[in-house]
């Protein structure tokens, strides 16, 4: 096994302690370096960094070597160098020599600095996780998670972790507060869980919650998104319109290994902790939950005369694949709720089954949009 392949980058539906262990392991192997374009070359679709060893917080850090780009890194290369991403991906798969020629040709003309976020587990080879602007402000997943959990602790809210995901793009931590609950009988009266067969009419309880998200690779800000959790089926509905965000922007950095001052780091984390406390005050509030459920209930009763056509429309508007469309129709039939609300439930229940956490989170975040489309609003 190569040193690069030994580095785990992802996990799905993990417990909090397992996510923390993985993030600590990743933290120990990160290489964040600002490099000039003349210090990077593509070799056999990998990136070779040149340059002398550099001083970092962990002592002397060797950054020179080969790094295998992830899909996210290729996306960054395409964006920063002006190469169409589908074309670059096709070159990686079919014409690796042309991949190298394109990347190297545009790097030669760039004459600028970039932030490369990588990982190495020893040896010459590593993983190139992201290719970013040198003004990108790093807010690491582990720091975000610990600061956000401190905000939860300071708020005094009694919450549980409903599951954690880590992808090459983002971290997701789902939090639920069962003490803040509301009844939604009209929203759930005709619905039954496709997983257990239990009826929403018998258990129309909805819990308050939120999702903590962050990206270390330029795929989104630190965000706290409100989330409602339906007890009978465990489907989640995130409400992106009300999300609180903290954007990763900053001043340009000097070349070399990235080092943040303790004062800068502490201020960033204090802000995240405070934002988490504020979000909890807003999202873990019974009036907030009831208002969102009332909004959903007003649209949910619209009857669906042609489920296949309605779901096809929803899939087209939201760019779902044919397989996702098929799964949504299947879950709609199993759910037994022949209404716009039933279409929304089908989408959120399919999201639970997806192995790709990014796609699952995106589908959960479309719950209200799905409801509007299904109701014809």
Alpha-carbon Rg, integer = 23 Å
Report the count of strand segments: 16
Query: What's the number of helices?
Result: 13
| Number of domain units | 3
Described by strand count, sense and barrel closure, the largest sheet is:
7 strands, antiparallel
Ends apart, CA distance between termini = 54 Å
Report on the architecture of this protein:
It comes from Nonomuraea harbinensis. The chain contains 13 helices and 16 strands. It has 377 residues and is of the alpha+beta class. Strands 1, 10, 11, 12, 13, 14 and 15 form a seven-stranded antiparallel sheet that branches. It has a seven-stranded mixed sheet with strand order 3-4-7-9-8-2-16. The longest helix is centred in the last third of the chain and has 22 residues, at 262-283. Residues 249-255 have low confidence and may be disordered.
Quick take:
By secondary structure, this protein is α+β, with helices and mostly antiparallel strands.
Layout: helices, strands, pairs:
Elements lengths: L10 E4 L1 H13 L1 E7 L3 E4 L2 E4 L4 E3 L2 E3 L3 E5 L1 H11 L3 H10 L1 H15 L2 E8 L4 E9 L7 H15 L4 E7 L4 E13 L1 H4 L16 E10 L7 E9 L5 E3 L5 E3 L9 E2 L4 H22 L2 H15 L6 H11 L4 H14 L4 H14 L3 H8 L2 H9 L2
Parallel strand pairs: 7-9
Antiparallel strand pairs: 1-10, 2-8, 2-16, 3-4, 4-7, 5-6, 8-9, 10-11, 11-12, 12-13, 13-14, 13-15
Helix pairs in contact: 3-4, 5-7, 8-11, 9-10, 10-11, 11-12, 11-13
Organism: Nonomuraea harbinensis
Protein name: DUF932 domain-containing protein
